[in-house]
Each structure stands twice: as C-alpha cells, then as structure tokens.
Amino acid sequence: MTSRRLSYVIAALLAVILFGAITVILPRGLAGARLDLTQDKLFSISSSTKRMLADLDDPITLTYFFSQSVARDYPQIFTYGRRIRDLLAEYEALSDGKIRLKVIEPEPFSESEDSAVAAGLQGVPTNSGEQIYMGLVARDLTDRMALVPFFNQDRATFLEYDLTKLIASIAQPDKPALTLLTSLPMIPGQFGGFGAPARPGWAIHEQLTQLFDLGTLDADFTHIPQPTDILLIVHPPELSPRQLYAIDQFVLAGGRAVIFVDPMSEAVANARLPSAAPESSSLDPLFGAWGVDLIDDRVVADVDLAQRVNMGDGGPRAIKDFALWLAARTENMATDDPVTANLEQINLASSGALLPIEGSSVHFEPLLQSSAVSALLDKGVARGMPDPDQIMRMIEPTGERYTLIARLSGDSISAFPDGPPPPEDNADAEPDRPAEDEPPHLDRSNGPINVIVGADSDLFDDRFWVQVQDFFGERIHVPVADNANLVINAIDQLSGSDALIALRGRGVTQRPFDRVEDIRRAAESRFRMEEERLQAELAQTEARLADLQTAPLEGELMFSPEQDVEIQRFRDHMLEIRKELRTVQRNLIEDITALGARLALINIALMPALLILAALGLAIWRRKRSEWARQLQRSAP
C-alpha cells in the first residue's frame, strides 16, 4: 500500500509539472494556432474574407494605432481595441504574406502620435487630457492610402465587413461604374431657353456623382453599356421587351442592380413632373423571374410610422399624422445587413409592398418593413391632397409587416426562356438570334444574382429627406433622414466583391456579466434608499432650523442653546449618513472584487485541479479494473 500511495503522489506531482509546462510551452510553440470559443465567433474570419485575401495581388501594409496604456482605464474601449488587433493578426496570418501588420502605440507627445495625426487619425480626449487613438491606415506598394480614423463601437457588429471593405478599396481603387435609368428629374437639366433657370436636379444625384463614375441610360437603350458595375433604376419609364431583355441578361450574367419602382409616384401624381413620366412603374416580367411580386395597385398606410405633417396654415390643430408618408425607424430595418445597419430613419411616400413568390429559388430577404399596425389601401387615395383623418379611418391593420425594400440573391431563371424578343417593329417575327458580337442568350444565371429592390421612388425626392439651402450661390444639403445613406450603402455594398456582399453583422459583441450586474444594481438600490432617506431627513431638519431661526435670539449674533443643539445634531446626523453611504459603496466594490477573485480562482486553479483529479480518478479506476481482471483470472478454474 505504501508503494501504491507513493506512485499516486508521484503521478500527481507529474501532472502538476505537466500542467505548468503546458501553460508555458504551448503559448510559444503554438503561437499561430487559434480556437474561437465565443458564441458569435468574434475572432473567426469568414470564408468570404478568406477568398478576398486569397485574391490579393500586391502586398498591403496595415498600420494599427492603438493607445493601449491610456485605454486601460476604459474597459470597453480597451477590450474592443484588443479585439481589433487580434482580428487584424488573423488577417495577416491568412493572407499568405500579402497583409503586413504593424501595431503602434502612439504615446503622448511622441513621434508615433505625430504619425497618427499626420495620417488623419482622430484621437478621443480622456479626463486626464490624454488622447486615445484607435485607428487603422492601409497602404499598398504605390503608397495609395485608405484609413479608419477611429473605430466606433457602434460599428462593432460590422468590424470584419469594415476591415474587408478597407482592404478591398486599396486592392481595387477605381470608382465603381454606376449606370442610371430614371424618368424622374434627378439629373440636372439644361437651360430651358433665354432667361430660364437651369433645373438643379436632386441632391442625391450630386452625391452619387461624387462617389461613383456615374453614367445614364438613354430612353431608347437596347443594351447595358460596359463597363457597368452597378445598374441603378429609379422609377423607370415604360420599357420595351428588348430593354427588359437587356436588363434580364445583365443581371443573369452577374451584373448587380439596385432598383426602386413605385405603384404611385407622388412627384408625378401631384403634377410636379411632365405628363410623359409614368405615374407607376414596375419591372414585370423580370420580377416574376427573380421571385418577387410588387403589389402595384396598393400603397402601404401605417399608423405607427405616420409622419407628422402640416395640413393648414401652421396652427396647432393643423399638425396631423399622415399614414401614407412613412418614417421608418431602426426597429423596421434589418440591423444585421450593412445596407440598413446604423441608419436611424428612412422617409417614404405612398410606398408599395413586395412579396416573395413561393417556390422561387431566389432568396427574398427584407431590409425595410412596415410596422404591424399597417394596411394596404387603393393607390388612388394618394392622389391630390387626401385627408389624413380619413386615411386613418380607412386603415384596418392585419398584423402583417409589409416589405418595402428587399435583397434578392440566389440562382434565377431568365424572364425570356425563348431567347431575345423580336424587334419592336416586327412583333410577329421569330425571336432574334444573338449577333456575332453579342454574348449568347442565358437561360439561367451564371451564379447567384445580387439585386436590391425597393417599392418606393419618392424617397429620392429632396422634399422627403433633405433641406436644400442656398449659401451665397452654393447649394447646402441638410439631411433630415437617412435616405441618401440607404441608397449609397446599397450601391457601395453591391459594388464590392462577392466576398464583401456575403458578409453580415456578427450579432451581439458585448455581453454583460449578469451576476456582477445584479450585485451592482442591488448595491445601487441600497445607495439610492440611503440617499433618499438623507434627503428626507435633511428637508425635515432644514424646516426645523427655519422654525428655530424665526425665534428671538439671546444676542444679536447668537443662537439659543436649543438651536445650537439642533444644529449640532444635524451635523452629526450628516456625518453618520455620509459614513453609511461610504460603507455601501465600499461593500459594492468588495462584493464585485470578491466575485472576481472567485471567478479567477475557478478559472486558474479549480478547473485545472478538477481536470487533474479526473485524470487521476480515471487512472485509479483503470488500475483497479486491471487488478479485478487479474483476480478473476486467478480464481477461474
């Protein structure tokens, strides 16, 4: 028995030594190995980003500026900054040498801080007067640069998307080619004649011109010009079969499209545009092939999202809820999609509704929806100046949330299965055969299509989302809604690689320690109770003092003995209450510290100890089992 016990002790000592060796050696020997056990896989790189990194041609240097020492006093910023650093290290490890990461801590009044400022990074001032830098600079071999001035935690769920987009912008620096088709006066017009003012166009067109290489489609187009990275269609005119076929083949061949149609354009219906512009627009039969249906004779009326409008001369009673004009909020948007993430409000007018077609192979993903307190009304109610109160009475909510904007993705069939339609001047002829210089007809998409469809075009109209002011001849845009950001996000996201389009948000990135929060709330509750008691007793004491002070004084500058006693009692009471408050605060810190110590003990000592005990128990059980087996063999006849 003595030798057996000695062997157990030796085994335990060897297990402890082995555990210590593992904790020291493994972090060095397996420095490149990583295992992500977080629920949202916050430190894992998606397959989309891996494909993008594999396609890089030239090396890119990423310089990450992070004020780690200053950020230690701010746990949320410090944790987020470390997460960014670790994720960038993953990019470097997976890039096969194409990503070169530098991590710099810009200490105050140092050359590294000067480098951060010179690069355009933004520092966040702290209470101590120091700056926290948490930004990224990307450069290629030609010194082309892109940067993130400061990583805002509001974008934490899209950290991988933002990093991948930054690298892609360096790898592909040219502006995306955007081709626009519209019947609305978005584009600035020419002078109408001598003395006639120029039509300024809409504010969103000016922003698109700054961000993209913007071109337009003529009314008689028969093909989509090349190069076209993104096709933007906004309330199109009535299109011929040949024009619909050109759009069909563009999308099936891998072209991306952002399309906004409208069952009731208020700009047209209210006679704000020439009669040549259609009142309604659609892209049938393309929508049918793409698995989406536009309810083209109904508009969405929403009680919860109704905009407040002035229906009179400005009196208080003239301000009413207009249920046909919607102000969609964050809760109506897909918060895990980069197109609608971090937007606060989208204004629409007489919007239609989109429905997925059952059985379609195309995936229908809502990006913007109405509330559950909404209904579909005949689009005729939007003409003229409808009475808001009457519109409200017409709404009978069904509890359904109607899709206003959707993303379409997946394999699709052609809306023209028999090939190109015949020329417009000979509709009875056989379908055209493709010319020698034209690509062959596609019956199905070459890969997943990427289309974003909206059921309203009035969201582009200046009057619904921006105030345009004239400042000494210069047009100043003051947005009141995120309509332009929505459109730009959609175009920008679709203009990226397939890897960028596939990326989504990672969900919740900060998870509270529930037990710690319970302790904190309980302590704060006690603190508030003590504080309220102090304030109540203080008020009573002050009232008593006021009564005493109205009594006659024994001398000109002396209080009576009763007053002196009351004042001293008040002071003693104040000291006692303050002491109690300090005790509550100290107990709060002690409770949380004790919990942290217990958690550290569990993680550092208890769990390894349990593993060692389990291993020893398993070894003892196996030894016992072998002894029993030998005893059975000896006792067998």
UniProtKB/TrEMBL annotation:
Tree of life domain: Bacteria
Ranges of Basic and acidic residues composition bias in the record: 430-444
Region described as Disordered: 413-448
Transmembrane segment boundaries: 599-621
Domain DUF7088: 39-138
UniProt entry keywords in alphabetical sequence: Coiled coil, Membrane, Transmembrane, Transmembrane helix
Residues forming coiled coils: 524-587
Pfam families referenced in this protein's UniProt entry, alphabetically: ABC_transp_aux, DUF7088
Domain ABC-type uncharacterised transport system as annotated: residue spans: 188-490
Protein name: ABC transporter
